[in-house]
Design goal:
This protein is α+β, with helices and mostly antiparallel strands. It has 6 helices and 6 strands. The strands form 3 sheets. It has a two-stranded parallel ribbon with strand order 1-2. Helix 1 packs antiparallel against helix 2. It is elongated.
Length: 167
Amino acid sequence: MKVSEAIKILESKVLKSEENLKHFPKESQGYAANEARIIAYNIAINKLEQIDEPQAEKVEVTEKQAELLRAFRDESLYELLANCLREDEELMAKARLFSYTVKPKRWVVTTADSDTCYLKRFRMGKECLDGDISKVWVGELGWAFTFNDKSKAEAVATLVEGSVEEV
């Protein structure tokens, strides 16, 4: 049972006990018992409201995975998993059960030669000693500068004589 469900149940019990108060004289034991119930239920509600319900985090999926999730939205989980790549099964099951967000597309600039390196940073103009373009290349994708906009990545790739790769 979720905390929010327990609170709703207790709130309905408070309302029922408040309704029961009308059937007893103020000095009677029945009235006192219902007042005590209302106090106890409200204490329980206050304690429950202090509990943080864990929220399942949304899973990040690629656009292609999101398309598959949308295509099999009305199908069983088994049907979805039967149509996805084996290495994606756990991710797709979590996405289906806990909801998902689509990863934004990202691009990096790579070297144009056969040894793939990634652009980490570059400078040009007055910031460089010779007025040309200063580039720093790295061998690890994790260190590369990523672009949210493909046209900007392409513009930088043109300046540094590299190429663009989606990551």
